[in-house]
Amino acid sequence: MDIKAAVTFETSAKFQIESLQLSDPNDDEILVRVTAVGICHTDLAARDQHLPIPLPSVLGHEGAGVVEKVGARVTKVKPGDHVALSWMYCGTCPSCRSGRDPYCENFLALNFSGTRPDGTTTLTKGDQVIHGSFFGQSSFADFALVEERNVVKVPQDIPLEILGPMGCGIQTGAGAVMNALQAGPGTSIAIFGVGPVGMSAVLGAVVCGCTTIIAVDISPDRLQMARELGATHALNANEVDPVQTIQDLTGGGPHYSLECVGSPPVCRQAVDVLPLLGVCGLVGVVAPGTEVSLNMDLIMNGRTVRGVIEGDAIPDLFIPKLIELYRQDRFPFDRMISFYPFEEINRAVEDMEKGLVIKPVLKL
Question: What is the mean pLDDT of each run of 10 residues along the chain (364 residues)?
Fold first, then answer.
């Protein structure tokens, strides 16, 4: 079928809206009419080839929409269902079998290869192959082919256009606090970087009952938003030494810290700020091979540093929880969303890169 999609033809190039041909769904696939899709820093990392994807490609991995057609073997959803789209996993490796889907041993191949698991492609422009299946969806398009594993059925009384970011950025930040760190009531947390992931972590910390929630950033607007969403303190890292200031505020360091920037110097700060037995979670996306220098003696003294992928979440279980919290006005993630027409994807990306918006969402 003919679809409209934003194509990345060259490294760091602007997105081009093109008419493409999309394959019919296989027996295990689902055709989704995309209503809206969030733009994530991971999309930009792939565009800039910091993540190994083949070009030309259609990116996009925070889609939400309506099921149009299902393959013969699909039982999870039916035409007309509302869905949010998330990442792909194999379901058969040891990580998946133990319920740790974000750490699927085939994650890179399934989400970044540009093809279906069987190696076939789904998109063409005339005789030219356009790589798709990005995170099993390639939702920078008005239609996307997905599988049952990366589709989450969502309630029809919640606006679909706000649910796309649930599939990655929102559940990554909230899940890092709620699932990975498992922050408890009365604890303290320092969140380094309050973009969409860090801001979702602030919301997750409020849900967990953290009583000291320290947001660190260099954007006054983002720090103000973090305050409005529940941060008890907001520190501009251009104006204060965040490590010393946080240790002073918490009487020696927070129980938890979260690095949401993908920066080795910021990672060092997030580790150095911890007290004995403190835990630092790393969620910021970095280029392969990025290294950081840490104080080994500091870590030896009971501190923990751990990486977190996709918020340690099982989307089928976690996204409905976040939606219910939103329904109860306890998780107002929609306040960080700014909408753009799909055709203005490059303006949305530019505004995001300039820090003018927190979470741009394209409406189709």
Answer: 97 97 96 98 94 94 98 97 97 95 95 95 97 97 97 97 95 98 98 97 98 97 97 98 98 97 96 97 90 92 95 96 97 97 98 95 97
Picking from 89, 94, 97, the residue whose alpha carbon sits closest to that of residue 117 is: 89
What topology is assigned to 170-309 in CATH? Rossmann fold (3.40.50)
Q: DSSP alpha helices (H): ranges in the chain?
A: 41-47, 94-97, 107-112, 169-175, 196-208, 220-229, 242-250, 264-272, 296-300, 315-327, 345-353
Whether the upstream peptide bond of residue 56 has omega within 30° of 0, thus cis, is yes
- Show the tokens assigned to 104: 């699927």
Residues 63, 261, 340: CA angle, nearest 5 degrees: 35
Q: At what angle do helices 264-272 and 242-250 cross, to 10 degrees?
A: 20
Question: What distance lies between CA 21 and its chain's CA centroid?
Answer: 27
176: its two tokens: 């890092």
Structure tokens at 259: 């690095």
Contact 171, 318 (CB under 8 A): yes
List 146's β-bridge partners, or say none.
30
Q: What distance in Å separates the CA atoms of residue 130 and residue 123, rounded to the nearest whole number?
A: 5
Number of H helices, E strands in the chain: 11, 18
End-to-end CA distance of the chain: 17
Looking at the domain 2-167+332-363, which fold is it?
Quinone Oxidoreductase; Chain A, domain 1 (3.90.180)
Q: Where are the domains of the chain?
A: 2-167+332-363, 170-309
For the whole prediction, is pTM greater than 0.90? yes
